[in-house]
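name: query_chain
kind: protein
chains: 1
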Amino acid sequence: MLEAIPSRRELLAWALAVILGVTVVMVARPDSADAGFAPAGPTTEVVYVATGENFPDALGAAATAALGLGPVLLVQQNAIPAPTLTELNRLQPPEIVIVGGTAVISAGVEAQLEGLGWGPTVTRIAGANRYDTAAQLSQATFPTSGRYPLAVHAGGDQGELVTTTDEVVRSVSLTAPVAGVVIVNSTVAVSEPNAGDFVRCSITTGTTIDTTFLQYWRSPGAPGSITQLGGTRGFDVTAGELFTVNLVCDHFGTSGSSNVEDSAMTAIFVADT
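structure:
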């Protein structure tokens, strides 16, 4: 999936930047509109174009662009500055979205974008004013059926008994805004009444132990001692998919049960490029 494109670590950094509400846009002076930030690689699917002569449209586009892992580039009302054109030619995105009406980005600039050599599809999101444009962006990006976090976490003390029957001890859910991968990390602290007993745990989308991904622990000796298990696993998801992942544990041994003292699970969504 990944070659000469942003690394999974870089994509995670983008996801976390959105989670933390950290968005950066370079706003140029009215007399020298320049390219904005362009952290994505050459397989960028979409670029957002906003005026560099005022900040509201670029600011409003930032969250939408970060969600789609695309940059915001800046233009003048009637011209595409050379740095912006250079960056567009480098990225060659199949889709370009103009943010703002013809009063801020003219039909002539739109025609220039449509005429770029690789033939991008150019669309425009615009309202009657800057407030309406921001609202139109929101409507185009965020659904009314619920919020979709890019990261979720659940954890805490439990004191839960685990027997030889598989049991879901922790669960988290998120909705993928676009196709991508969910990276899941879990930890669980377990104690055993008898030395030599086993605990098995698995990060899985099901409700039973997944034998292809197991986290084992055997009591090292002293009954009642607490040991932690941990693991990380990735899952592919499709756009709009409600993704639920579980931490499932069970007990092997003479006592018939183990005790889950506490557990935690974190899931982070990363968009495909």
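note: Residues 1-42 have pLDDT under 50 and may be disordered.
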